[in-house]
Amino acid sequence: MLEYEDLFGKANPENFAVIFKDGEATAMQTKVNDFKMYYAMQMYFANGGGPCYIVSVGDYTGAVTVGLPTTAGTLLYGLELLKREDEPTLIVFPDLQGLVPSTGDVAAASAASTTALNSKVITSSLKSIANIVTEAVAGATVQAAVAAAEAKVAEFNVPNPNYLQAASAKLGQIILVAVKAAAAVPGATVPTVKAAAQNIYTAYEIDSDTASAIESDTVAVKTNFLPEPEIQLLSQKYTLCTIRL
Predict the structure, then answer these.
(1) Alpha carbon distance 130, 201 (integer Å)
(2) Which superkingdom does the taxonomy of this entry point to (predicted)?
């Protein structure tokens, strides 16, 4: 342990204080080191540890990748170096506990999960609306198919609509515009008019599937309380899913 201290020094001092008022603890002040290598070595030798080999594969300013055994600065390169020694029987990563999430991480995971769930509900509902209107586009003639679409879309106009009802009505109008545009094309048929509505439904089906996948990811993040980098990656992925209105 003395040799380790000569090479790397000791741990930074940690301050711990408890503030009392009227005999009761009212506040705690702590300053705990983020890195635990010193304590890991201390416990290792205190429990009878023998020769010890420390392999560094990078510093705390850059990301360490798994990499290849022949690429310096990667995890596999470090493990390859340990193979040259006969003694190692236990490999320890003492600073991994620094990945324990903070309160902010947990809050971010919860917020992302809630937002993703809302998006999943909305996109699923709009997909259903698109399907209802698409199925309504039918009739013996193009004019009849357009009239059927108009009648179905009119059903979504309700007084004092909430957000989802308003979005449904707007989506219905979007599909109706596409149907009328397809009907105005020379040589239009009922199948080509219906295809215009089907294309919009397909787009919402993709959005709904994407929102469901993202919601599943956010649940996994929230469950495992991953650190901030994973939350940021998930947020970047979430921005790929937009409601088509």
Answers:
(1) 5
(2) Bacteria
Q: Does 226 lie in the same domain as 119? A: yes
pTM passes above 0.70: no
b/e per residue, 213-239, with b = 16+ CB within 10 A?
ebbebbeebbeebbbeebbeebeebbe
Residue 37 CB partners (closer than 8 Å, separation 6+): 8, 54, 94, 95
Task: State the Cα–Cα distance between residues 54 and 52, nearest whole angstrom.
Answer: 7
More confident site: 184 or 85: 184
Nearest to 241 by CA among 119, 108, 128: 119
Print the domain residue range for 61: 2-99
Which of 65, 99, 133 represents a domain boundary (last residue)?
99
Q: What is the pLDDT of residues 112-140, one digit of tens each?
A: 778 888 888 888 899 999 999 999 999 99
